Fold this sequence. Notes:
10 helices, about 30% helix, 9 strands, alpha/beta, Rossmann fold
Amino acid sequence: xxxxxxxxxxxxxxxxxxxxxxxxxxxxxxxxxxxxxxxxxxxxxxxxxxxxxxxxxxxxxxxxxxxxxxxxxxxxxxxxxxxxxxxxxxxxxxxxxxxxxxxxxxxxxxxxxxxxxxxxxxxxxxxxxxxxxxxxxxxxxxxxxxxxxxxxxxxxxxxxxxxxxxxxxxxxxxxxxxxxxxxxxxxxxxxxxxxxxxxxxxxxxxxxxxxxxxxxxxxxxxxxxxxxxxxxxxxxxxxxxxxxxxxxxxxxxxxxxxxxxxxxxxxxxxxxxxxxxxxxxxxxxxxxxxxxxxxxxxxxxxxxxxxxxxxxxxxxxxxxxxxxxxxxxxxxxxxxxxxxxxxxxxxxxxxxxxxxxxxx
Length: 360
């Protein structure tokens, strides 16, 4: 948290940042953006062991719980919070349940996908947290496919649950490339404010902050070559950055120039090549179909994908190569999260501070 945000939070009565809880935390990209805007995650919950290890590594002061939110009673979360931070309860909830069930790119859809129920579990825990701690706001993130014809009824029901939990809500689709992230990545965000405390809150979603897109070359150009995966490879033995590794290219397409021929990068789903002088395709990799590096000679490393997501150099993902690919694919770009968090902070806490000043 920068000096300006730290001073701001101390003046607003939050010495360590505005306390929040993170559900379906994943790699912590949403939390990083909120941290940069002056918030402080006091509890993070996810069912993925690699996600929990990653979160604990990057947020040493945060309590991290490996727990399946689809199976646990909300009371477990409430009890953990009461024990963890008496007198310093969270005022906000943030999270993005895994979204593959609603993705337009999901070509392996199932009629009954358990992942499609996760947003409703988020709403269940949110309702319990609002009732117990009278929280000020929540943020819910997911793919735009949630608001399409196929899933519109699910999204409508979910928003009804948010309202029933006591919130007035707003929704917007934000594109990461509008916030300095070198990637086309549209995601839907629902922001809710406590109906009793902030019914008339003045909030607007962040507007585009970058007129010109940041290109792949600006972010990945000049990086050293990554290390190729081997079974005895450890993070400590990977130079430059512990996530700068990828699978060894085996297809002949990486060797015969096929992937850079014609220069359009559209070589079929398993071999999509990103281009140096434009933004990347969406970082969302299933079945290890990681985008091909602009050179056409290999796939992107995990670290390169992290940079395309807007993560800083000092951030590390833990787990094996496959787990790291999943974590970076599912993450919220921190610059987008930071812009959104800043709007929420100004809408609620700046207004509250102004009201308490003499003459207000």
